[in-house]
Write a structure and sequence with these properties.
By secondary structure, the chain is mainly alpha-helical. The chain has helices at residues 2-20, 23-30, 38-55, 61-76, 85-101, 104-119, 132-146; strands at residues 162-165, 171-174. A two-stranded antiparallel ribbon has the order 1-2.
Length: 177
């Protein structure tokens, strides 16, 4: 039983490696698409996906894709249309097949190669913003510039629009000519 539990944990690590290296899920988590608990939802998703594999026999790629797409939509308000779902599903199916066949070394190798890719991931952050003092000075400068004397217009300003109440209760706004 301990060997079975250990091997099942290895499959769970495989699911974690696939999902945590998937750019769509990482973008959703990094940008708060799942709310303040986005990272916890991503971790929960690992458990739900691995349980889905154990509860359903002979899963097809389209079934896995649909399941993950539904999870992303429900938990992260994200529709995945970048074409990555088939690859994620294939990776998960391959890992599950390796686990079922007892090819645990091959499964571990697959996990290691994915986690190496994750460690190479670069997170893009926004450039630093100006401090409040700098932005206040800039705002004051802009206000001063806008309060300087302006050049008078040669064109008269356009006339204000007129309104009329029609018989059906609608108000029609027309520009004076």
């Amino acid at each position: 039983m301990a060997a079975s539990a250990a091997s099942r944990e290895l499959f769970t690590e495989g699911v974690r490696a696939v999902l945590h290296t998937w750019p769509v899920l990482q973008i959703a988590v990094d940008n708060g698409f799942g709310g303040v608990y986005g990272q916890q939802k991503a971790d929960w998703m690992v458990d739900v996906v691995q349980q889905y594999f154990h509860d359903n026999a002979d899963l097809q790629q389209c079934e896995v894709e649909d399941f993950i797409a539904d999870l992303m939509d429900q938990e992260f308000d994200t529709v995945v249309d970048d074409g990555s779902l088939p690859q994620v599903s294939i990776n998960l199916l391959q890992m599950f097949t390796q686990w079922q066949q007892g090819a645990l070394q091959q499964l571990q190798h697959s996990i290691d190669s994915l986690t190496q890719k994750k460690s190479q991931r670069v997170k893009v952050t926004a450039p630093p913003t100006q401090s409040d003092e700098e932005s206040d000075d800039e705002t004051q400068e802009m206000e001063c510039e806008s309060s300087s004397p302006s050049v008078s217009r040669t064109d008269p300003p356009p006339p204000p629009p007129t309104t009329q109440d029609e018989e059906d209760g609608w108000t029609v706004v027309r520009k004076k000519k």
